[in-house]
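Q: Structure for this?
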Amino acid sequence: MSKANLFYAQSGGVTAVINASACGVIETARQYPDRIGTVYAGLNGIVGALREELIDTGKESAEAIAALRHTPAGAFGSCRYKLKSYSENTREYDRLLEVFRAHDIRYFLYNGGGDSQDTANKIAQLSIEREFPITCIGVPKTVDNDLPVTDNCPGFGSVAKYVAVSIREAGLDVASMCESSTKVFVMEVMGRHAGWIAGAAGLASENEGEPPHVILFPEVTFDREKFLARVKDCVNEYGYCAIVVSEGVKGPDGRFLSEAGGTDAFGHAQLGGVAPMIADMVKQEHGYKYHWAVADYLQRAARHIASKTDVEQAYAVGRAAVEFAMAGKNAVMPAIVRGEGGEYSWSIGEAALADVANVEKKMPPSYITDDGFHITDDARAYFAPLIRGEDYPPYKDGMPRYARLDRVLAEKKLETWG
Amino acid sequence: MSKANLFYAQSGGVTAVINASACGVIETARQYPDRIGTVYAGLNGIVGALREELIDTGKESAEAIAALRHTPAGAFGSCRYKLKSYSENTREYDRLLEVFRAHDIRYFLYNGGGDSQDTANKIAQLSIEREFPITCIGVPKTVDNDLPVTDNCPGFGSVAKYVAVSIREAGLDVASMCESSTKVFVMEVMGRHAGWIAGAAGLASENEGEPPHVILFPEVTFDREKFLARVKDCVNEYGYCAIVVSEGVKGPDGRFLSEAGGTDAFGHAQLGGVAPMIADMVKQEHGYKYHWAVADYLQRAARHIASKTDVEQAYAVGRAAVEFAMAGKNAVMPAIVRGEGGEYSWSIGEAALADVANVEKKMPPSYITDDGFHITDDARAYFAPLIRGEDYPPYKDGMPRYARLDRVLAEKKLETWG
């Protein structure tokens, strides 16, 4: 086979370990100098391909690329940009092919969630139709953990670890103070459509009475009376109540609770997230003093407390994506396969992009306890291995040292896009 | 000297390292078996003394006590309870003396902030007046870093490290996505009366353009127009703007910004903190997409990312408190003394409780840049050494293992308090 260039792009919300996948892609590609020329990374994801803004990763040192493994967020820039179907937006697909052709790119690796795998799949189809051979390989990534086929998604294990550690620590804080101060603590976590992240926080509670005491899932319709009764029971029994609430919790009307808060004095929609709303609801009903936290981006960027398992898997799917391409595979994505047996093990399998694109994996109902407020042993068995191991970044003067790339753009060969 | 028992209590808001001080106290006290009998810890602070709920730390294993060094929050329980003056509340002081007498307690070690040092000082005075000899030693603690005399307060260095690491990580996240998504990120941090914590977050920004771009301090009256202009400049120049806002920021009317938000549809005061308010202000003016986070208790409980310097100092003040007592000192508090010279060094000095009680140390104006939005080199020189070093807790199955104490109460000898 002849030598060609490879295009890699990061897509959608970034994670603590998406750069570990980039590291896996680039380090592995460098092991095939006879077959892979330059690895170009899209500046700000697929937008970089459209604009012909291609970062020449060959200009980055081996040290800088190695440092990606311990660097959170998207070092090449990511984007929220979903390509429409070919029939709706022929011009964009034509442009992508034009850019790929101009830069002799015949490998397309797309690192993202369901939407991105759909895009990769469309490009794979188009490449066949247009008789311009591009090998399209997906690289899974999403803190939402909602990709099908793969047992879990790189990025999820680290956010899971962050939320479990955080609620354990904050729970100890509240436990210390509840006699005379805060009795209810609410931590809001991500997961607009599924409760994977909220559920993982349940790992912090290993024994009866340990925080979190209540988890509010998007999968369980919020029942105000039942919730308030449960909080009161916890305060009576344990002295306090630590609550984890998913941003995606919905009320009986099917709307997000966070949208139901009315307007402030200026007529703006309620600014706060669901955490302050829940906390205030408890205060109004029971009078308990509360505190609340919204972790927001802190949770998905928290490389300092990343899961070692997650980092290793993120690297492995990046590496496997290149190896799949080298093996002549196309329109596939490396998937994480959980081994059988009591001891956790994992390996890399293969998923067809067509099976992954636009399918959202929900959390199984068997993961939620009958009362709707916690996780089951089945859920624990699933979540626990994903947060295992620590993988600390290097520190200097008390601060983590994250990669700084030069991000040198390749010379443009085409007309400006716009 | 004859042998007597020691009473130790944790007071006020807890920190990631207050238990390291407890560890220093107990481990050191155990080295004086001829002079110190039992170390009793107040269950929920001074309230435990009033109620005669005294945890017999002698019943805890050496391993459990050692584990306090890496355990956040208050393992014996803390409280928000300020004793009034003796003339206002003779009954409480009498009760304390009664409990101390009944349990042969002649050492009183109080681990807290300014209020607590005031209490310790009052008890010291009373002990002299009543001719009941109690050695009263303060143990400094507060994330607010507002105690005088001591160079810094145990607890502060770890929250400083947490906020600096968090805004560095979240800043990278925003930088990755700003081309097509979030352009403004706001992180709210603690510090109702002083900007120490907000200022420490500035350490994340080491080079021009690095986050945080804007810090809003309680010391600087919020100027809406100037702030909005600065945010716009940052977005234009860097593509995004990462903001750290102290909960204590005040408007021109002298009120907390967080209190100025009006009411929601139910007539409740605005639930959100100052972060969502600031974020929405930017959105209304400039239309930028935003995200915000409120770290709340997560920041002061985050033992997983504690500063090694902070842990060592917290332990050292606990140890020194016992050594002061053994040396016959009274009504003093160990203080952290910064060494002279370019290399950071510290030692333990001595502060009179009378000099510490009820005095709030403000951040010097020289720590804030002329535009009011960032920290100066003086501030960096002060903050930087306090976050140095990592001191990770032990992990098992991916989760930090924190101390679990038995907390066995000593038998009561007095009438029930109430």
